[in-house]
Amino acid sequence: MAIIDLIIKTDMNSQIVEVRCLDKDSGFNSTELGQLIGQRAEYILNIKPNAEGGIIEIQGQFLKFQRVADENGDTLYLSRDAVLMEFLEQTTRYYAEGVQIYDRNGCFLHANPASEELERYSIDEFRGKHLLDLYELKEEKSTVLTVLRTQRPVINRCDRFKMATGKTLTTINTGYPLTIDGNVYGAVVFESDLAVLKQIMKRSMNLEAYVEGQQPAHKEPLYNFEDIIHRSDCMKDLIHFAKKVSLTDSSIVICGPTGVGKELIAQSIHSFSPRGHKPFIDVNCSAIPSNLFESMFFGTEKGAFTGSMEKQGFFEMANGGTLFLDEINSISPEMQAKLLRVLQERRFQRIGANNYLQCNVRIIAATNEDLEVLIQQQKIRKDFYYRISTIKIDVPPLYERKSDIPILVQHFIDRLCKQYNRQKLVVPEYIMDILLQFEWPGNIRELEHVIEYAFNHAAEDVEALECRDLPDYLMSYKGARHRLTDSSQFNGEDSFGSRLMLEEKTIICETLSKHKGNISQSAKTLGMSRQNLQYRIRKLGLNQ
Which of 6, 303, 371, 473 fits a 20 to 30 Å CA distance from 313? Predict the structure, then answer.
């Protein structure tokens, strides 16, 4: 094992001139390493120009590199162990327990965020200081000092000590010596207080419940009203009204076109309500086969039919909480009648059972169709409609609240940049204008997909989105063409020359959009030389 695995030297033009492998047991193929010579380091190793360090991949192995410049070029020092150390440091961030590491003299080296949170200190303030300067304690009450002196582990010892700040702490500690070649070079201690122990105990209880089949393995956190990204007045009014009705037990129907966030609002109502600590069961009614409808909603008894087992239905699972029925318009009138009876009597029977089970469930339904029209078409029963629609919430489509688009776009961009560890990506004003003019038939969901498409299409080294990063159907939209061919620069004159220039500008914009900004392909399509097209682009002010 070597601290440095590879050394790569480049000349002043960033061309690789030498590759040296320092670890014979590294597993690198020397022939393939030799093929790197003569290549541009930025291209073959995917290194950003002038980057002083980072992570690269060679022959399926990840290495951390550091660039050192000299008069003849650059030298890259690459290490696999540095990547491993980076992973280990990130791993400790997710520990519920606090972790502290000391050297063999008792000086503080490192800790994880859980330890900072537990003891309310800063790692940077502690680093390099001796244990006795940080805490007022004796050896018999210090797990670290005991481990360093005896060179043996200390398991689950209760320590009570006072920090230099005057704060007194009581923790359960476990410490281990850190050895290399049989010699102790430090100690690590894992610390927990009552809150951490309760968190670990709760996790163990959840695992036990899952093993016994009492609950699902993982429950995703529900949305809250604070998660609804908005700026428009109509959404502010909607959220204000939704908060008021969430405090009641009235049935709610949420209406709105596809992609406006009906389930997000339903979850927010549940989270804000007194039932927020109870189950939220969401059901996509369109995905339930008609022959399984009753068994899935009401449950079954063992032996009710061939192969049937004792199983809870949706009403039983949601007892005390909320049952969210998405796409309520897809339920057949026959099944509506069965649901109506449960909602009226607040009791139901499992299939194959003789006794009734009480039902305390709040119903929130959602639909993307006009319910009154469905009633006229006899697809929705009137009595069922009146039962589920005590309160009706209409969610406006995105084109009616376009003031929300900029803040939504920025939210999606920021989330993607954070998720993929990318530098901030700017959305230029002319791109935002195109997004504002589009009608968005798919609403917020479509906008999110467009931003994700543009994010993935944009080059890694750019700082701003470009027109070519948008989907083709968006760029061919008449509003986009109008934005890109804004005739304001012609001072409103309706002369033959200005109209001709406007038409020329429109044709070139559409052709560039079709070929995603490729000058050569666009020039070929237009039947002109590349230089001529570039001249016309500059002349018409289309450089951007």
Answer: 371
Question: Quick one: 386 and 268 in the same domain?
Answer: yes
Over range 409-437, report the average pLDDT.
Answer: 90
For residue 309, the enclosing domain spans 225-394
Tokens of 229: 């990204």
Between 459 and 43, the higher pLDDT residue: 459
**402, part of any domain:** no
- If you ran DSSP here, which 8-state letter would residue 284 be given? E
Q: CATH number of the domain at 34, please.
A: 3.30.450.20
Mean pLDDT, rounded, for 133-161:
83
CA atoms of 499 and 303, how far apart (whole Å):
80
* The 3-state secondary structure of 411-441, one letter per residue: HHHHHHHHHCCCCCCECCHHHHHHHHHCCCC
- Cβ burial, residue 146 (10 Å; 0-12/13-18/19+): buried
- Number of independent structural domains in the chain: 4
- Angstrom distance (rounded) from CA 310 to CA 293: 16
* Straight-line distance from the first to the last Cα atom of the chain, in angstroms, rounded to the nearest whole number: 52
- The answer to whether 66 touches 53, Cβ cutoff 8 Å, is yes
Dump the DSSP string for 358-390. Answer: E---EEEEEESS-HHHHHHTTSS-HHHHHHH-S
Picking from 49, 64, 86, the residue at the C-terminal end of a domain is 86
As a whole number of angstroms, the distance between CA 160 and CA 153 comes to 19
Cβ atoms 465, 458 nearer than 8 A: yes
CA distance 36 to 137: 58
What amino acid is encoded at 128 in this protein?
Answer: G
Based on the fold, state whether residues 252 and 180 are members of the same structural domain.
Answer: no
CA-to-CA separations, 428 to 112, 186, 406, 410, in angstroms, rounded:
39, 53, 11, 11
Q: What does the pLDDT look like over 495-505, one tens digit per residue?
A: 445 556 677 77
Instruction: For the beta carbon of residue 109, count every other beta carbon within 10 angstroms.
Output: 16
For the stretch 214-239, pLDDT in tens is: 544 445 689 999 999 999 999 999 99
More confident residue, 117 or 262: 262
Please report the beta strands in 150-293, taking only residues with DSSP state E, as ranges in sequence order: 154-163, 168-180, 183-192, 252-255, 280-284
In this structure, is residue 220 part of a structural domain? no
17-54 pLDDT per residue, tens: 888 888 777 778 888 888 888 888 877 787 877 788 88
The DSSP bridge pattern shows strands 252-255 and 362-367 to be parallel
Strand partners, 57: 62
pTM of the model: 0.53
Residues 6+ apart with CB under 8 A from 293: 331, 335, 338
